Amino acid sequence: MDVTMNSNGIGWAIKNMRNGSKVSRLGWNGKGIYIVIQKGYPDGIPIDRNTAEATGLPEGTICKFHPYTTSERNMMMKTVDGSFVPWLASQADILAMDWGIANTIASV
Known about the structure:
The chain has 3 helices and 8 strands, in the order βαβββαβββαβ. It has 108 residues and is an alpha+beta fold. It has one domain (2-103).
């Protein structure tokens, strides 16, 4: 993951995520870290075995998954190990001016 930086703030990052881009900060440690906007599943999706075990519902049950915000979206971070987790901005992230578009390279 390489990042093209242009001294941009969090507003710029949000605007670009809304347009479908992956964004990252130069100040983040770790290769391949970026954030994206993830839409919820307001119409529902069939749950897998893990979710069925956690909820007590049969596997394949259609469940609606709403994101944490009222805008029907939330932000997710791709971590160094390749997993995705919900993301909340720190004060440092909000005030940072090192946001850029994360560009996928062959090693990711």
